[in-house]
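User: Predict the structure for this protein chain, please.
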Amino acid sequence: MANMSFKEYVWHHNPGSIQVHWENRFAEHILPYIGSMLERVGRKYRVITGEGDFYGPDCYEQFSRLSKVFEEGGSGYLNLPGMMPIRAVFRSLEMRCEPVENLVRYQFVFWEEMIESVRTLEENGVHVAQQGETLWSIAALYRCTVDGLIAMNPQIRNVLTLTPGERVRVR
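Assistant: Here is the predicted structure, written as structure tokens:
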């Protein structure tokens, strides 16, 4: 199972629990003498919450590295085990220390960013990789498959990581 990551930060051990909350939006239309009718008008952003432990003699250093990512702000790609990458913002981070040596408990909240920044492909259908992007995030961005990207890009030697500026043929 892949480790959770956000931007350039990769968890050494996945959090103990991760919850992803989806919610649809509905509009109610009142129909005189009949009642009401619900119409689905889209979905709200996903809310990703979780909690975990950093343990070992460097547990406070591990939390400090995560808190620096939180303090940077801005959005990035959140990679969750078993899911397509999500463009998200790091909404909150909480340290939940107990008087136990070599253990830091934490909780986090991410919010999905629903509107992608406008991206344009070069004339030849090439996407230029940004910091933190993966083939999975690019596939989600352009609504294509990772297998298709791999087939169109034999020059990519490591499909798990892309370097900023790397060129990925999309179309």
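Residues 6 and 148 are 24 Å apart (CA to CA).
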